[in-house]
Write a structure and sequence with these properties.
Keywords: Membrane, Transmembrane, Transmembrane helix. The protein is mostly helical. Helices cover 54% and strands 5% of the residues.
Length: 508
């Protein structure tokens, strides 16, 4: 049965649905009639409503465009230094390596339920600072108000916190961090904390706190910490001391077995008392604690020119197994006659190769190494004016290690020391670190060394010599057997020679 909208409306009027049954029932009956007459279900929508909906849609889009315009005008991308972990890195790794588990610093994880337990200890630290310095809280709040916009510009995306909330967070989190830094150097009891304090003491939980505080998403701008410490020490323009306190605090996370010397510790403690700066990184500055830690690792290390994204974008590629191959694995290099020896230096990245010997510094791997390397790699990926030296080293190690046997041999050579459960865990750690990392293999400080190693590997004479040493000179019995075989061969040759010689030249 067919019909039109006018037919339905006329029939509705004739039957007086609204007057007899009320508006709700009339609407239901009207819908049933539309279905019976094979009319479209949305026939009751009038043109004014359609125009109104379209107008609201256009207005909504204009509002979003205006917001985008304001974001572009207000944002200072040049000051951005504390990034959110890119999804392509986060999805390929363990989320616990990027998200703090005990304490939040900065706005990204501020107010999360599982981290609120630490807030009361933050308030305790602020209260302790105010009592010790006999200063008013307004001094800190006013100082942070002055640099609020500069601090906001360090973070990625809009921050939902109000001005007062953001300033309060800077003061609370910043004083908490400084109390931990100073306690690790001067001693927490010297700052007035009990030796049994659940947080402000060098206890087991401190290692987990250190791991949280080195994460990229859990950073405070270094100039904020400099300002807060300067207020405490009566020198608002103080710079450099926080960076060295951070190095002392994060020293247990270093991927080497060389701790900070006692002399350096004494210099840090004396500089706190005299407010003189002891700052080996002063000529480089620093963005935040993770940046300072990374600079310390690479100190006096390779310093290539900053990457220019536009010029090199076409060369960047995902570091998968087909394209990130800088070097062959340990087992294959051994078969080509390359030997491994430990270098005596605390710069774990400083690898040398000469005359078939690959000299590598010792690397200490513990339960925080994975999180540390992942956050360092993420920072190198995100920050444009940052070299990729840590990423290059990790990919180089990933190439070297393909199996637990490779790890075992490097451990035997004294190159790898680990506190994990097995060699297989170490191999898995390196094989997963850079699965989805964007990396240009030609922009690695280890590329020239890798080319030298590969050139040596591809030389057939080296492979033959290595095979001879492996098969015939691997132990004393093999050497004796080889010598005996050579002597027997020479005697057989001599006997054959004199037999033939006697046949053709018989004695007269």
């Amino acid at each position: 049965m067919g019909g039109s909208e006018n037919d339905v409306e006329n029939w509705l009027v004739r039957n007086s649905w609204e007057s007899d049954w009320g508006e709700d029932v009339a609407t239901s009956r009207y819908s049933a009639t539309c279905k019976a007459l094979s009319l479209p279900s949305g026939i009751a929508i009038n043109e004014d409503e359609e125009k109104s909906a379209e107008s609201e849609w256009v207005i909504s889009m204009n509002e979003k465009l205006e917001q985008a315009n304001q974001d572009d005008a207000a944002s200072s991308w040049a000051k951005l230094s504390i990034y959110k972990i890119p999804h392509y890195i986060r999805d390929g790794g363990d989320d616990k390596a990027f998200a703090p588990q005990i304490v939040s610093l900065g706005p990204y994880h501020h107010g999360k339920r599982r981290l609120r337990q630490m807030d009361r200890h933050k308030w305790r630290s602020l209260n302790r600072v105010l009592k010790r310095t006999k200063q008013d809280i307004r001094l800190y709040l006013d100082s942070m108000k002055e640099i609020e916009e500069k601090a906001r510009a360090c973070y990625e995306g809009p921050i939902s916190l109000s001005s007062n909330e953001f300033v309060e967070m800077l003061v609370l989190d910043g004083c908490f961090v400084l109390e931990l830094f100073r306690g690790a150097t001067e001693g927490f009891t010297q700052l007035g904390y009990s030796r049994n304090d659940p947080v402000f003491a060098m206890r087991g939980s401190m290692h987990s706190i250190q791991r949280d505080m080195i994460m990229l998403e859990n950073q405070l701008p270094l100039f904020v910490l400099d300002r807060l410490l300067g207020i405490q020490l009566g020198n608002p323009d103080l710079k450099g001391l926080v960076a060295n306190l951070a190095l002392r605090f994060f020293d247990p996370l270093m991927p080497t077995d060389e701790p900070l010397t006692k002399s350096d510790r004494n210099k840090l403690a004396s500089s706190l008392r005299s407010t003189d700066t002891f700052d080996p990184l002063s000529d480089q500055g620093g963005l935040h604690c993770l940046d300072v830690f990374r600079r310390s690792l690479l100190r006096t290390g390779p310093q290539p020119a900053p990457r220019i994204w536009i010029k090199r974008r076409s060369n960047n590629r995902v570091a998968d197994k087909r394209r990130q191959q800088l070097i062959h694995c340990v087992t294959e290099l051994k078969e080509a006659g390359i030997t491994f020896k430990k270098r005596k230096t605390d710069r774990f990245w400083d690898i040398k190769f000469k005359d078939g010997i690959l000299r590598m510094p010792r690397l200490l791997i513990h339960d925080g190494t994975k999180s540390l390397f992942l956050n360092l790699i993420a920072f190198e990926q995100c920050h444009l004016d940052c070299s990729n030296d840590i990423t290059s080293y990790v990919i180089f190690m990933d190439n070297l290690i393909n199996s637990p046997g490779d790890v075992g041999y490097l451990h035997y050579c004294g190159i790898i020391e680990h506190w994990l459960g097995s060699d297989a865990e170490v191999a898995d750690l390196f094989n997963r670190l850079c699965q989805e990392v964007v990396f240009d293999i030609n922009n690695s400080y280890l590329s020239p060394l890798s080319e030298d190693v590969n050139r040596y590997y591809n030389h057939r004479w080296n492979t033959w010599c290595a095979s001879l040493r492996h098969n015939y000179f691997s132990n004393p019995w093999a050497i004796i057997s080889l010598v005996a075989a050579v002597v027997l061969l020479l005697l057989t040759f001599a006997q054959t020679y004199y037999t033939i010689y006697g046949y053709y030249r018989p004695p007269q």
